[in-house]
Amino acid sequence: MTLLEGKAVSVSFGGVQALSAVDLSVLEGDVLGLIGPNGAGKTTLLNAISGLCPARSETLKFNGTEISRLKPHRRAKLGIARTFQVVKPFDRLTVVENVAVGAMFSGHKIPTRSRVIERARVALEQVGIASKADLFPRQLTLSERQQLELARALAMEPALLLLDEVMAGLNHAEIEKTMALIHHINKNLGITIVVVEHVMKAIMNVCNRIVVLHFGKKIAEGAPARIVESPEVIQAYLGKRFADRQRRDQAQRAAQR
Known about the structure:
The chain is an alpha/beta fold. The protein has ten helices and ten strands. The strands form two sheets. A six-stranded mixed beta sheet has the order 6-7-8-3-9-10, sandwiched between helices.
């Protein structure tokens, strides 16, 4: 079933065309990766889906409902949640109170403050920082602040989760942990995910499909193995060295089976 469908999605800022007639289809259960060079339009596309920037489109439907004219909070209540590349928590609220803000925008009405806090604590448990609930954001590490951002989105109980570079600045062990968390959210919580990421190891391992943007246009779409073989993608983004390394790794894995 198609959960999100966008046809000819375009965004311009003055005379700058940030997105140009991008078609996007996200199936229920997908983990769809968005990759491309800096300035390719990846975050702009997430902003267009979540309603944070005005976009033109032939259609933009979520779960069968046309959402192109809906405000961000209306889209959130339909089941679209997102994280932001630059994490900006409310510094004067505790970690659990920050996450509770997300819970308040859930499409599932939560009747009391205590239930809102309870839902926030569940989300913190899901991302692995429940023990930090009563701290303030300034007391968290970068990785924990990223997890806080993710918990706030999960507290909205979304059907579609938009992740914007949740692994930026993380070390190898933290990236591995976040990859496992994304897999858990998708498989065990049943949430469809669109992820923008520059960490190619993560994209190749957690996504079942990849869309490549370049100068605001979609230049390729398909399974990860197919994308790394695309001459256009190699030239625009990956580079020949990366593609050669991926082929060697795939050959080694195949030989070990």
